[in-house]
Amino acid sequence: VRFTKAQYSGTEAKGFVLVALELVGGTSAKPFDVTVTPSEELPVTAEGGVDFNTTPLTATFGSEMTMSSVSVPVLADDIVEGIETFEITLASINEGIKIHDSRGTASIVITDSTMIRVRFTKLSYTGREAKGIVMIALQLNGTSSNPFNVTVTPSEESSLSAEGGVDFI
Prior knowledge:
By secondary structure, the chain is mainly β. It is 0% helix and 37% strand. It has strands spanning 2-3, 7-11, 16-22, 32-39, 57-61, 67-73, 79-80, 84-92, 105-111, 117-120, 138-141, 143-144. The protein has a five-stranded mixed sheet with strand order 2-9-8-4-5, with no helix packed on it. It is rod-shaped and about 85 Å long.
């Protein structure tokens, strides 16, 4: 038995990643089970119990079946983390069923569903030329475990009386 791919992917919003398994080299006359275990061992970037469920899962192959699948739960949170990964491993719980050497482990890539929104706290800001600056306040909606930058770019709307390069940079 082996995973059909070396890497699977999904989003936090979906809540699970569907993982396919295949029996290679024939079929079995009797049904059998294999265990799929999410791993917290390095080189994972996702955290067990926070980003994915660490409970082992059982995949069942019916008699004469060569394919099976399990839904590996991923957990949504309100933290912007970017892309995270963790490993899953196969183990046989039936005598005579072996795990294929080339794909007994696979990785799962989780794309974060949390969005950070940044907005101005006011619709317009005023300042004095003599001061040379205008203080602009931004409001963050969401949290991030990583620092990030926000670029504010002045614009020359036709309805404005200020001229770029003369009144502002």
